[in-house]
Structure formats: C-alpha cells, structure tokens
Amino acid sequence: MGNLKRRQYMSWYRLLLIAIIGTLVFNFYPLIETFITSLKNMNGSFIGFTNYKILFSSDEFRQSIINTLYMAVLGVGLNVPLAFIIASVLNSIAHGKGIYRVIFLLPMVMSMITVVTLFKYMMMPSADGVFNYILSFFGVAPKLWLNDPKAARECVVLIAVWKGIGYNIILFFAGLQGISADMYEAAEIDGANAFKRFIYITLPLMKPAMLSVLMLGFIYTFKAFDLMYIMTAGGPFNSTDVLGTYAYSKAFTQYEFSQGSAIAMVLFACLFLVGIFYLKLLSKEDD
User: Fold this and answer.
1) pLDDT tens-place string over residues 214-240
2) Can you tell me whether residue 38 is helix, strand or coil?
3) What's the CA gap between 177 and 36, in Å, rounded?
C-alpha cells in the first residue's frame, strides 16, 4: 500500500509539473520579457521607467484609458442586468428552455469576423444600412453610427453585449436552477409575495454567481481587443481606442515596441488589481 500511494503521489506531481511548466513558459516568461522590453529604448538600452513617463504624459494614452474604463463599465452595466432578467424569464418558462438557451448562445459561438461583417453592413452610414433604412420609415435622417465619434463607443459596446450576453445568461440560468423550489413554496406559505421572494431568496443565493459574472465580465471587456480593432481600428478620432488596440498600434504599426510593452504592462497591472479585488470578495463570501 505504501508503494501504491507513493506511485499515486508521483503521478499527481507529474501532472502538476506539466501545468506549472506550461504556466511558466506561456504566461510568466512572456510577462517578464514584456516588462524588460518596456524598460528599454528602441536601441535596446535600459532607460528605466522613461517609457511609462512618456505614456502618462500622452493625451492619446489617457484617452485610451478613459475609453477602456467607459466601455468596460457600460458593457458590464448593460450585460449583467439584462442577462439576469432574461435568465429569470427562462427559468419561469415551463417548456422549451433548451431551445431558448441555444438561441441565446448562437451569437457567442459566431466568429468575430462574421459578427463584424454583419453589424458593419447593418450600421452603414448611408441609407442602404439596415438601421438607417428602418429609421427612414419614421422620418429620421440617416445616422453615421460607427463613423460618428460621439456614438461609436456606444455602438461597439452594444455589439459586444449582443455577442457575449448568452454566456452570462447560461451562468445565471444554472444558478437559478440550483435554487430549491421548496424555499419559494415555504416563503409563499409564510405570506411572501413575488417581490419579497426575489429580494430575500433569489438575490442572496445568486450573489456569488452575480459577483463572478460582474468581475469576469469586467475583465473580459477591459482587455477586449478583437472587436474594437476589427470594427473601427480605434477610430474615428481615437474614440474607440482602448488599451489593447493602442498597444497594438504602438508596437506593430508605429514599431515602438518598448512603449507598446509599457502599455501592455499597464493593462496587466489594472487587470491584476481587479483580480485581487475579486479574490478578496470571494474570500469574504466564503467567510
């Protein structure tokens, strides 16, 4: 038995070793290299935190931070409540839940290129665009949509919400399915109406799921790159330029790899702080 347990422990350690090596090679090594690159100039000489000083004095960098925060907060603020409402409605439906879940998951499984092509056609600034064509029936002049700096951020956020809401709906739906119907029946017998059952049963029991969806949604939106880059490439006039697209532009368009690495490190620091905050909230929930 001693030899058997020893072999089992060794097999577990080997599996852990594979995961540790993968994490070091594909996560920590690129992170360390990026940080070292951010401390160099174009010639490879160490210049300390000069790149960070240049970035924080740049109006474009500050605008990208503002855009990132604005779009992350707006995206989560729209996605999470809407997903919870839809999941609650699905949970109350007696038949056909599987069909509705598949329907809401379809946008999530669609490729980003397909989504961008679809919405670019629908948001064409001319009267040929689907949205402008619909507005013409109400006598509204064609809108610029993605070509308007004042509306481009909101349009991109709405597209991101449409594509990612299905995942949150499934998470909320699974949490609602886990709440025992006996609790609702007991509360109803005690005289609690639907609003009180929602406040005193549903919300407290769904708090861990809501917390996870909020934090993960914020992290996903905060580091979003593909939709913004393919849809608008940060334009018009940097109105949709987030940290991810700004870092890509600096590194691979302007070939300023040091500043691009510095932007990536700033993005990592922001997400790291959000992750620490999320873990603290989870520890409080466990306590």
Assistant:
1) 888 888 888 888 888 888 888 888 888
2) helix
3) 48
